[in-house]
Design brief:
The protein is built from one helix and ten strands, in the order αββββββββββ. It is α+β, with helices and mostly antiparallel strands. Strands 1, 2, 3, 4, 5, 6, 7, 8, 9 and 10 form a ten-stranded mixed β-sheet that branches.
Length: 152
C-alpha cells in the first residue's frame, strides 16, 4: 500500500511540473515584430503599391494575415512568382528573420483609393498578424520613380 501511495505522489508531482513547465516555456517563445523602410510610390491611378520590411527578432514565426487602410477600399497582399503576381491570404514572418516587400517581389496593393495621396504625404496602414497584435505604420508617399538605396 505504501508503494502505491509513493507511486501516486511521484506521478502527481510529474504531472504538475509538466503542466507548469510546458505553458511557461511556450509562452516565452514569441515573435518580436518591427517595421522599417515603408513607402508608397505616388499613385497615378486609383491603385497604388506599398513596400516595407517586417523584422522579427523573436524566436517564433508569425504570419501577416491582412492589411487595412482608411486610404483605400481594400489592401491586398501579393507575391511575385516568375513574371506574374498573385494575391495571397498570408505571408510568413520567420523567427529571427525578415519579410521584405519590394518592387518586383512581395508588395501591398491599395485598390480603390479614396483619393490620390501626393508625394510628401503619409498613408496610414495597419498590419494584422496571426499571433502578434496589429502594427500601425505611417507610410510616406515618395515620387513615382523613387528607387531606395536598400533595393526596395
Amino acid at each position: 500500500m505504501r508503494h502505491l501511495a509513493c507511486s501516486a505522489a511521484v506521478i502527481a508531482g510529474a504531472l504538475a511540473l509538466t503542466a507548469c513547465g510546458g505553458s511557461g516555456d511556450s509562452g516565452d517563445v514569441k515573435a518580436d515584430l518591427s517595421v522599417s523602410s515603408s513607402y508608397m510610390p505616388q499613385p497615378v491611378s486609383d491603385m497604388a503599391a506599398g513596400f516595407l520590411t517586417i523584422a522579427n527578432k523573436g524566436g517564433a514565426k508569425d504570419e501577416l494575415t491582412s492589411v487595412t487602410s482608411d486610404a483605400a477600399g481594400s489592401v491586398t497582399v501579393h507575391r511575385t512568382v516568375g513574371q506574374s503576381m498573385e494575391e495571397v491570404k498570408s505571408l510568413d514572418v520567420p523567427a529571427h528573420g525578415r519579410l521584405v516587400f519590394k518592387s518586383g517581389g512581395n508588395h501591398l496593393m491599395f485598390e480603390n483609393l479614396k483619393r490620390k495621396p501626393k508625394q510628401g504625404e503619409k498613408v496610414t496602414v495597419e498590419l494584422h498578424f496571426a499571433g502578434s497584435g496589429p502594427i500601425r505604420v505611417e507610410m510616406p508617399v515618395k515620387s513615382a520613380t523613387y528607387n531606395p538605396a536598400n533595393g526596395h
